[in-house]
Amino acid sequence: MPATPTPPPETLRPYLTPRHELLWQETELFADQYVGPRVPRLEHSTSKFDRRLAQLMGERGWFGVTVPAAYGGMELGHVAKTILIHRISVMSAAAGAILQATLIPVGALDHFGTHEQKTQWLPRVADGSVLMSIAVTEPTAGGHIGGMDAVAERDGDEWVITGSKAHIGNLHIADLHVVVARTGEVDDSPSQALTAFLVANDLPGVNVTPYRAGHGLRGFSAGRLDLDQVRVSADQVLGEVGQGMEVAQRSSIRYGRPNLAAVSLGIHDAVMSLTTSFLKARPRYGATLLDLPVLQDRLGAITHRLHAARVLLYHAAHLLDQGIDCDAELVNAKYSNHAWAMQSSQDAMELHGANALDPDYPLQRLIRDIQHTYAPAGTGEFQRIHLARAVLSAASAAGPST
Ligand SMILES: Cc1cc2nc3c(=O)[nH]c(=O)nc-3n(C[C@H](O)[C@H](O)[C@H](O)COP(=O)(O)OP(=O)(O)OC[C@H]3O[C@@H](n4cnc5c(N)ncnc54)[C@H](O)[C@@H]3O)c2cc1C
């Protein structure tokens, strides 16, 4: 029997409709029934990722949570997407990562795709029969998108793509990749030199390197994609030729940042409940560790970060649903959710004493998983620079102070 779902915290009520609350419950029941039982097996396997979990989420239509109903999607928006990733990630950040990594390219296809492309792919995304990945990062250029080496050359009605991509989420289970490659000269401005393509995984020349488990997120498929003269028909260009930088950045900003923040928040929630249960159950001086004021103080520090992180994320997702420009809020949500979950995980390690060091104790998994939300969708350096520039540009727009 699945456990009773926990209701959303009161602080989130302003952002949630009755449909959101129902989705919250459905997600928790799913996590309890299908995700939780898989976690121990995934943790102990370094050679297996979980295709079945992706199928189960796909069958529920969740890869189409933001897809318009006209293309078969749920059309529930960004807060709903956040609920799905967040609540699944409480149980398993790897499972949450499967969802989030697909929902980034789905957003790109929905925003930049032609009606024909959307008709071709989105209904299959929405019914779970097509899973997507986005392939931008490269082994050498890393997060410097403008410095990428992958090239695409026009040949009649086709483009021929050659290059390598690294750290691609859902690599081994994706049927369709959004690949960004260079179509202009190296000296051209990066904002016009790149183009995005829809690349079916079964095309000749698409090579997926074998899965190897990472430091954390065990069960989440990620790895290197090699493209060797892959021929893509010209009608599979996503957006305009020369718009690849915008496709990559917009998807990362509007989908990547809140998605990664939701994975961090799920881990943070799990850290909090594990630590509370531990302190509550550990006897000391005729009471428990949780009765010691000094440990309540430390638990209070975790609680304050968790509350703030939660509100930042749901607030930003809500602004997106309202169509309000909220780039800085998305940066803040992604950056703070990772940083605070890291701090709380370290506190939790200390609060568990030596018990945290048992390799089978769940905190080990959480502390490994949280390392994986730093790099994607903008590292900390880029997020802080972005926030500083937003303040500087607002200050210069306001003019000199008197
Ligand atoms: C879990 C996970 C999932 C991912 N999923 C995907 C995916 O689906 N698709 C995809 O394309 N990629 C994906 N990535 C890759 C991710 O986008 C990259 O890790 C990220 O862009 C950074 O690139 P890099 O790791 O190569 O680091 P680098 O770019 O090599 O940077 C290394 C360090 O130098 C810093 N740095 C670099 N340049 C500057 C600068 N100009 N100013 C200040 N600091 C700088 C960075 O902040 C970082 O700390 C994923 C990564 C992870 C961990």
Topology readout:
Blueprint: H1 18-35, H2 39-44, H3 51-59, H4 77-91, H5 93-112, H6 115-126, E1 132-135, E2 151-155, E3 158-169, E4 176-182, H7 190-193, E5 194-200, E6 206-208, E7 222-233, E8 237-238, H8 244-281, E9 283-284, E10 287-288, H9 293-321, H10 327-351, H11 362-369, H12 380-398
The structure holds flavin-adenine dinucleotide.
Overview of this structure, please?
Strand 9 (283-284) and strand 10 form a beta hairpin. The chain folds into three domains: 10-131, Orthogonal Bundle (Butyryl-Coa Dehydrogenase, subunit A, domain 1), CATH 1.10.540.10; 133-242, Butyryl-CoA Dehydrogenase, subunit A, domain 2 (Beta Barrel); 247-392, Butyryl-CoA Dehydrogenase, subunit A, domain 3 (Up-down Bundle), CATH 1.20.140.10. The protein is built from twelve helices and ten strands. The strands form three sheets. A four-stranded mixed β-sheet has the order 1-4-5-8. It has a four-stranded antiparallel β-sheet with strand order 2-3-7-6, covered by helices on one side. The chain has a two-stranded antiparallel ribbon with strand order 9-10. The protein has helices spanning 18-35, 39-44, 51-59, 77-91, 93-112, 115-126, 190-193, 244-281, 293-321, 327-351, 362-369, 380-398; strands at 132-135, 151-155, 158-169, 176-182, 194-200, 206-208, 222-233, 237-238, 283-284, 287-288. Helices cover 50% and strands 14% of the residues. The radius of gyration is 22 Å and the shape is globular. By secondary structure, it is an alpha+beta fold. Helix 10 (327-351) crosses helix 12 (380-398). The chain binds flavin-adenine dinucleotide.
